[in-house]
From TrEMBL:
One of its GO terms (cellular component) is cytoplasm. Its EC number is 2.6.1.11. InterPro entries: Ac/SucOrn_transaminase_bac, AcOrn/SuccOrn_fam, Aminotrans_3, Aminotrans_3_PPA_site, Class-III_PLP-dep_AT, PyrdxlP-dep_Trfase, PyrdxlP-dep_Trfase_major, PyrdxlP-dep_Trfase_small. The gene is argD. It comes from Vibrio aerogenes CECT 7868. The lineage of its organism: Bacteria, Pseudomonadati, Pseudomonadota, Gammaproteobacteria, Vibrionales. This is Acetylornithine aminotransferase.
Length: 406
């Protein structure tokens, strides 16, 4: 029997587990900040695969790294190490506070490693009663059972039976609530240095500094989830560098591989020592293919002119969104840093973010949402000024169509 090869959006409903509700369009190829669907319609990509495609689609350096490594060595297992993993780890330690790196395949896995390491560190140094993990409402840390429990959105974690315990959620930016909760029983505090899924919420400088100080005071580890904010997304290589607060453990993924799945947990030598041989692991983590691609990505993003370019592109986006809003006032503010931006809908437009996303798709533009009230933009860090201008024109067209039909 010959296998039927043609597929369309209907095929999704036939064969896929229904935990997603994808758009009707199916992109088939991409170049830079543009993609084309099955009907060869062109779209400008302001979504970047949810802050992943940091060099756009099919960047020559990534294609070259993948092809070269693909002809050499794909996989070994952690019984041996490999050159791309060692080179990438070395670069990540040079670009951050970290001295040691653990490789995984995703942000959730990097966060899982971070949380397990923090608990193990606390048990070894202070005893089993120091187990409390403080996290924040609306935070997002992945979909494994531990990370989704630490994440601050109960809709994602409820209904799967008993959760890992001793996890406390507090409001982000509420320093009084934080002071009241943290104690010598606190093992770790996990936070995004800029909340992504929760609506693109920046921390106040006082809050993030006080969290660091109180962690020091109570011998608790500070874990920064930089899965979305990392690798140049905010205009600093890691966002912590822009807020002037250094964590003890940092997780990174998404943009790290530019579209090839890879995650990493970064930490100090002292803390890393608590992951002795056999305590944690990953079959594919640190595989040569992923690390070779990520190394090519990091080499480009780490260039000062690329990081500076992110800050310049942020201004271009903010100006363009202001101009659209002057004609069609639907946004209350533009939040975020670098190319992790969220346009928050005003009172009259609450709950309509997905309507904008759908209208944008029809106008040939890919955007995201961050909850029901924020339209999110996480394009390629290398997106050209022309593509920003054209994308904003398409966004205006989309907003005009929703505005006039309301």
């Amino acid at each position: 029997m010959a296998m039927e090869n043609s597929v369309d959006r209907g095929t999704f409903d036939e064969v896929m587990v229904p935990c997603y509700s994808p758009m009707e369009i199916i992109p088939v190829r991409g170049q830079g900040s543009r993609v084309w669907d099955q009907a060869d319609k062109e779209y400008i990509d302001f979504a970047g695969g949810i802050a992943v495609s940091c060099l756009g689609h099919c960047h020559p350096a990534m294609v070259e790294a993948l092809t070269t490594q693909g002809n050499k060595l794909w996989h070994l297992s952690n019984v041996m190490t490999n050159e791309p993993a060692l080179r990438l780890a070395k670069k990540l330690t040079q670009l951050s506070f970290a001295e040691k790196v653990f490789f995984a395949n995703s942000g959730a896995e990097a966060n899982e490693a971070a949380l397990k390491l923090a608990r193990r560190w606390a048990v070894d140094n202070h005893g089993p009663e120091k187990s409390e993990i403080i996290a924040f409402e609306q935070g997002f840390h992945g979909r494994t059972f531990f990370t989704v429990t630490v994440g601050g959105q109960s809709t994602y974690s409820d209904g799967f039976g008993p959760k890992p315990s001793d996890v406390i959620h507090l409001p982000y930016n509420d320093l009084e609530a934080f002071k009241a909760q943290i104690s010598d029983r606190t093992c770790a505090v996990m936070m995004e240095p800029l909340q992504g899924e929760g609506g693109i919420i920046s921390p106040t400088p006082e809050f993030i500094q006080a969290v660091r100080d109180l962690c020091n005071q109570h011998n608790a580890l500070l874990i920064f989830d930089e899965v979305q904010t990392g690798n140049g997304r905010t205009g600093d290589f890691y966002a912590y560098q822009g807020v002037g607060v250094t964590p003890d453990i940092l997780s990174t993924a998404k943009s790290l591989g530019g579209g090839f799945p890879i995650g990493a947990m970064l930490t100090t030598a002292e803390i890393a020592a608590h992951f002795k041989v056999g305590v944690h692991g990953s079959t594919y983590g640190g595989n040569p293919l992923a690390c070779a691609v990520a190394e090519a990505v990091v080499d480009i993003i780490a260039q000062p002119e690329v990081l500076q370019g992110v800050k310049e592109k942020e201004l271009r986006f903010r100006e363009g969104l202001e101009q659209i809003n002057a004609k069609y006032p639907i946004f209350s503010e533009v939040r975020g840093r670098g190319l992790l931006l969220g346009a928050a809908l005003n009172e009259a437009w609450q709950g309509r973010a997905r309507d904008i996303l759908v209208a944008a798709g029809k106008a040939g533009l890919l955007v995201l949402v961050a909850g029901p009230n924020v339209v999110r933009f996480t394009p390629s860090l290398l997106i050209s000024p022309e593509d920003i201008t054209e994308g904003l024109a398409r966004l205006e067209q989309a907003i005009a169509s929703v505005f006039t039909s309301s």
